[in-house]
Design brief:
Its EC number is 2.7.7.41. This protein has 272 residues and is mainly α. It has eleven helices and two strands; from the N terminus they run αααααααββαααα. α4 runs antiparallel to α5 and α7 runs antiparallel to α8. The N and C termini lie far apart (40 Å).
């Protein structure tokens, strides 16, 4: 499994870094494609586990939430948007999902709940990757800071757990993850955060703030990973798909950002 994992990373990492660097429409299209693929894989996971989900509503209203998350923070002089954009959009999603369910011959409240979870969890969260990149002056560097810290944490956790792992983190949810892996990944993530602060963010925050941000990324990213594992284990599915050899699917690869991306964005926005 290690060789496919490395080969996929060698191809995927330059693509992600290039999209972040170019930003704008290119990065927005990249994140939009990731959101669509993650929504689709979420639907596949639930379907494989015989959990009902309304795929058209999932994709349609999921994209709506992603667009709203991005447009909602655009400067007023760029986009003429109503002040009540968020509540209006949430109302549209609630009405739309329930409306389509009422029209479905075999109605299911479980399908409504599963569809709502996908619509609000995946696109709303991942759209904040675009918001973070669009922060004036430092957007590219902050995005690199968060994403590379997650990569280092994942890699550190993988190898620490493989060679040092003895105590299971939560064998019911993720049987291969260990406390040793989690701690090893966190330590390396903090080191990477401090290093990146010295390389391109020294004017924005201090070393101690870099340590706290590194801890935030490592801890929340790993919790987010476990949250996605709860969805998969509840359906008996190991990977969201096999689109990324050695890594599973796009939802497996971007699961760390489901809880992390919005939190990191708002922490940066309101504290730095």
């Amino acid at each position: 499994m290690l060789l496919p994992r490395i080969l996929t990373a060698l191809i995927g990492i330059p693509v992600v870094l290039a999209a972040i660097h170019f930003g704008g429409v290119i990065y927005m299209a990249f994140v939009g494609a990731v959101i669509l693929l993650c929504l689709y894989e979420y639907g596949l996971v639930l379907t494989a586990g015989k959990k009902p989900v309304h795929m058209p509503s999932l994709l349609l209203f999921g994209l709506l939430m992603a667009v709203v998350a991005i447009l909602g923070r655009a400067p007023a002089d760029m986009v003429d948007l109503p002040d009540n954009l968020y509540p209006f959009s949430v109302s549209v999603v609630i009405f739309g999902v329930l409306f389509f369910e009422v029209l479905t011959p075999k109605r299911s409240w479980d399908r409504v709940c599963n569809t709502f979870t996908g619509v609000f969890l995946i696109p709303w969260s991942l759209a904040h990757l675009v918001n973070l990149r669009d922060i004036a002056t430092y957007g590219e560097y902050l995005t690199l800071f968060m994403i590379i810290t997650v990569w280092v944490c994942d890699t550190g956790a993988y190898f620490s757990g493989r060679f040092l792992g003895r105590h299971k983190l939560n064998k019911e949810v993720s049987p291969k993850k260990t406390w040793e892996g989690a701690v090893g990944g966190t330590v390396l993530a903090v080191g990477a955060a401090v290093l990146m602060r010295h390389l391109f963010l020294s004017t924005l925050f201090s070393v101690s703030e870099a340590v706290w941000l590194g801890l935030l990324v490592a801890v929340v990213g790993q919790v987010s990973d476990l949250a996605e594992s709860v969805i998969k284990r509840s359906t008996g599915v190991k990977d969201s798909s096999n689109l990324l050899p050695g890594h599973g699917g796009f939802l497996d690869r971007f699961d760390s950002y489901l809880l992390l991306a919005p939190l990191f964005y708002y922490v940066v926005l309101y504290t730095l």
